[in-house]
Amino acid sequence: IAKEIYNLIAYQFEGSCFLANVREIAKREYGLVQLQETLLSEILGDSRSLKVGNVDRGINVIKYRLCSKRVLLILDDVDQSIQLETLAGELNWFGLGSRIIITTRDEKLLTNPPVELMYKVKELDHNEALQLFCWNAFKRDKPFDDYVELTERIIHYARGLPLALTVLGSDLHGRSINEWKSALDKYKRSPNKSIQGILIISYDGLDDNEKD
Question: What is this structure's pTM?
Fold first, then answer.
């Protein structure tokens, strides 16, 4: 959803940046610095690699270079407050009319400072999940007759997560039934890295009662 919004409205701003996979990149050594440098390079339209050296200097450069620019910034998959503090700590870091969109599984991160608008994405129900998966796997809204049972197994595996359904559907598109069976067994034994990452993130975002 965030990527679709970005593609639709980015042209309205002086500069824009979609920072994907903030959670994963921030885990790396100097990951936050890398994110700051990507943010600056994309918004300023500078193909050269901007080096900020450390997080504190990165904050100062962002505030100095972007405080008069109307920007669109999307921070995708944020899971720690330090990520927000180093990438978009205050609205006055950016020019008037700027928009900051944050995707996260932890609502508490959006309370300090409070966001203007919060939209909670729900897991898809069975019919919605079926249609999304089928459009990616079959390029139509229902499975071919021979694939009905396998489709149900895969939808159950994806747990109603839109991104997981999209990744799996695209991965299986154009494959034979035997290839589907083999792929499903492989997912369960040694999951596709993309889908496993999505499911792990989803599981980690649940509270203890939901996990049980």
Answer: 0.60
